[in-house]
Amino acid sequence: MRGIYNATAGMLNSFAELNSISNNLANLNTVGYKKDFNLFKSVYEKEIRSYQNAQGKGEPIGNIYSSVVLDEVIPNLEQGSLIETNGKLDFAIEGDGFFKIERNGNYFYTRNGEFSLSPENYLVTKSGDYVLDEENNPILINPDNFFVDEEGNISGTNIRLNILNVENLNKYGENYFTGEEIGQADNFYVRQGFLEGSNVDALNEMIKMIEANRKFDILQKAVSTGDSLNAKLIEITSNF
């Protein structure tokens, strides 16, 4: 039975891989998207001891693990390619950091700089959420004379885009992240008239999908074979 359990755990891991890969491919053209990366951990750890030259509980010589399970899904923060749009409300961060966004009093972070204007001329995301300055205030702009330099300073004002370093990131949805701010970013350039593309490599994801499918098929056959052997064993032992 242990073989069936281990093979089934492997099937679940392959299924988790396929889910992540499918989500990555679905967001191939999503601005600022960061691909998912699965982390796995060993479980059912057992300690091996040698009793040859030891007394009592013996001497530890290593560990064995019976299975591997999905631990967490984390975003891969590699830089996506920059795409020139020439749109004055389009921004890309080249380097570190995230734009800070406010929605109903809650703060989020994103690399998607595809912004627009609210009816009151505030800089907002496509979802209508406020883009914030370094004082965490919404940014009111003059759409006829709106220029942002490489450091995020808005021309003709004392306002600067709030570009932050963030850790312990978790995907929230709508290409937003939650996390813990660790200060202003300093290793970056703001590129007005550009957008950051997804960091998904379609060819690499397709190769990973093929590999995950093959693993799933092999493990599925292992479960089927193990089940048949167990049934045969039960049939044989029932005759004694």
From TrEMBL:
What Pfam family does this protein match (any one)?
Answer: Flg_bb_rod
> Where mainly located?
other
Which InterPro entries does the UniProt entry name for this protein? Flag_bb_rod_N (IPR001444), Flagellar_basal_body_rod_CS (IPR019776), Flagellar_FlgE/F/G (IPR020013), Flg_bb/hook_C_dom (IPR010930), FlgE/F/G-like (IPR037925), LlgE_F_G-like_D1 (IPR053967)
Q: Which biological process annotations from GO are given for this protein?
A: bacterial-type flagellum-dependent swarming motility
Q: Which residues form the signal peptide?
A: none
Answer whether the UniProt record assigns the keyword Transcription regulation to this protein: no
Record keywords, A-Z = Bacterial flagellum, Cell projection, Cilium, Flagellum
Q: Which residues form the Flagellar hook protein FlgE/F/G-like D1 domain?
A: 92-155
Q: Fetch the NCBIfam families from UniProt.
A: FlgEFG_subfam (TIGR03506)
Which family does the similarity line name?
Belongs to the flagella basal body rod proteins family.
Recorded protein name is Flagellar basal-body rod protein FlgF
Q: Which organism is it from?
A: Petrotoga miotherma DSM 10691
